[in-house]
Automatic annotation (TrEMBL):
UniProt name for this protein: Lipoprotein
Organism: Microbacterium caowuchunii
Keyword terms, alphabetized: Signal
Signal peptide positions (record): 1-24
Phylogenetic placement of the source organism: Bacteria, Bacillati, Actinomycetota, Actinomycetes, Micrococcales
Amino acid sequence: MSGGGRAAGVAVGLALLLTLSGCAAPDPEVIALEAQEVFDELVAAAAATDTAVLRTLETAPPRQERCPGEEDHSQTALTASGVVSITADEGEAGRIRDDLAASLDPEEWTTIIPAVAEQRAWISDHDVVVTLSADGPALVIAVFTPCSASSASRAFASPVGMPYTG
């Protein structure tokens, strides 16, 4: 076998090994679906909060963000923000955040250390990141897809800009 043929054979063997060992990159559509599903579940759970406590909850349209240091790569951010009623007990946003956090399956979501004390964060096996933040009366739900060259082509089917008000 020539040097070029041997290299091609090694490359094919390595690709097969990676595929069989589960190290192949997941399908971007699977990642997008995972991100959308967890976002929708968290928003639905937050929306079920008593409106005397969580006065508003509004989703924003999905947005593409450039990945730091990788101009040809981007990630999708899904966000929702809510405001706790001024008549609610102090710390209600934190309680809602903690209730939402408890809904994440620890076998699917690994806790990561966020940069901000008021924030909780998790990462999935597909590198989807969930952050839940509570700062004063504000509650923020954010889900991020991993950086990808093809994330700009993904479509998210969830209705956006739909306020949940009390």
